[in-house]
Write a structure and sequence with these properties.
Length: about 450
């Protein structure tokens, strides 16, 4: 029988926790894919409006999600210390901060039309985008509360429910889109507003399902999560805020790198931008695996830190890195050996321009093979650092890697040095590799002293 601290035992435990999280991340991504496909069936202008509005919502969401993400390592550490009251306190205040952030940013969504116009969108796209965000923006609060509950349940090793609720949400979203966007089944045809109502409804229903599970499951009742939820707890609030806001800024820095790359690719050409979008979708699907592993590693690292077991912490970290690296290598081989079939999943061969888009997307997937390992290692390193409650210095490292090194490298290689789209992606490779190196070095220096 394997020793509790053997690499095999660590691998099993990490995968048992991580696989449902990976599945839920993939299901969450399919929500976005379903919205894009169904709006594309409805109309081109409506699709453009929903794409720009949804990406704007996502940027605001990422910044505010740090408080919810902070719940995961804090609850895991409190549980390892045997402090059940602290589990409840940290989770509640993570939800309080999420609630406050959601209320604070809603005016941005209400008056999003002028913002979208200022960002260079066409008037009809900006108007439809505002229609979408005035409704979908109400979903910021339940979306952030869902993330806080997912963090709480993941820290308690209850990841299966997160997976099944997310899968159910995909089905509900597709059904509501079918009725409300197109006016099927006697429902009103609402177009963009229908998509927004569907998104809001799914977020509210997902929150309700997880809230009921977290509050009434017999094994979880001892935490009394909803008992006197309205009572403020300022020490816990400060703790979650201190750990959480740098996580949000770190996420914003990374998503900003990819948003900037899309913007710059649009300067190069339509074919290049289409190819960029396809290659990014493929790379993003692979990234969901590393993200799920990173979440699992955060919980396990926080548990070992809370239990005061540095030997298990370091061994678990090495196993987590090896699992992510193994999958990353598999994806590198896949991107290099089978790029054509992967790209072909996203294109209709009969349409004009398909050959040019396919050729350039295949080139970009070869570069995605290069940044696959950097992307994997930076998100794993962030997971490890969050597990030991280290978020401020990693935030600075991420901002430097992406904004001072990654984006300028992309620009210089693409435009002054004339490498075009290939140069843009080489800049992504450089930014992610620097982030991976800095963040991994930070973790091992920290635990080396522990």
């Amino acid at each position: 029988m394997a020793h509790p601290l053997s690499p095999l035992a660590h691998a099993r435990a990490t995968l048992a926790l991580g696989l449902p999280l990976i599945g839920s991340h993939l299901a969450q991504m399919s929500l976005h894919v379903a919205d894009t496909v169904m709006m594309g069936w409805y109309g081109v202008t409506e699709l453009a409006a929903v794409v720009i509005a949804a990406s704007s919502f996502f940027v605001v969401f990422i910044l505010g999600s740090g408080f919810a993400q902070a719940v995961m390592p804090m609850v895991a550490a409190a549980l390892a210390e045997g402090d059940e009251a602290q589990v409840r306190r940290d989770t509640r205040m993570g939800m309080w901060l999420s609630l406050g952030y959601g209320l604070a940013v809603y005016p941005l969504f209400w008056w999003s039309g002028p913002v979208l116009l200022a960002l260079g969108q066409r008037p009809e796209v900006a108007a439809l985008g505002q229609d979408f965000l005035r409704i979908a923006g109400l979903g910021m609060i339940p979306a952030l509360l869902v993330m806080a509950l997912k963090s709480y349940l993941a820290a308690l090793n209850r990841t299966q429910v997160v997976l099944w609720v997310t899968i159910a949400a995909v089905g509900v979203n597709v059904a509501l889109n079918w009725f409300l966007i197109f006016g099927n089944g006697g429902a009103p045809e609402l177009g963009v507003r229908g998509a927004a109502i569907a998104s809001l409804s799914v977020q509210v229903l997902t929150f309700a399902a997880l809230a009921v599970y977290a509050g009434w499951l017999p094994d979880l009742r001892r935490f009394r999560l909803w008992q006197r939820f309205w009572r403020p707890d300022f020490p816990a609030l400060r703790g979650v805020f201190r750990l959480g806001w740098p996580i949000g800024v770190t996420g914003l820095a990374e998503s900003g790198l990819f948003q900037a790359s899309a913007l710059m690719m649009g300067w190069i050409g339509t074919v290049e931008l289409a190819a960029h979008g396809i290659a990014m979708e493929v790379a993003a699907l692979a990234f969901m695996v590393h993200l799920g592993l990173s979440n699992a590693i955060t919980v396990r690292t926080a548990h070992f830190a809370g239990a005061g077991d540095p030997v298990a912490l370091k061994r678990g970290a090495r196993v987590g890195i090896a699992l992510s690296a193994g999958f990353g290598i598999t994806m590198v081989v896949l991107f290099l050996v089978l790029p054509g079939p992967l790209v072909g999943l996203f294109l209709d061969e009969g349409k004009p321009g398909t050959d040019e888009i396919t050729a350039f997307a295949i080139t970009l997937l070869a570069l995605a093979a290069l940044f696959q390992m950097g992307d994997a290692m930076q998100v794993i390193a962030l997971g490890l650092l969050r597990g030991i409650k280290d978020t401020r210095v990693p935030m600075v490292m991420a901002a430097i890697s992406y904004w001072l090194i990654g984006i300028p490298s992309s620009y210089l290689l693409a435009f002054p040095l004339g490498l075009g789209g290939v140069g843009l992606w080489l800049g992504l490779v450089i930014g992610l590799a620097v982030a991976a190196g800095l963040l991994m070095a930070r973790f091992w220096l920290k635990v080396g002293r522990a």
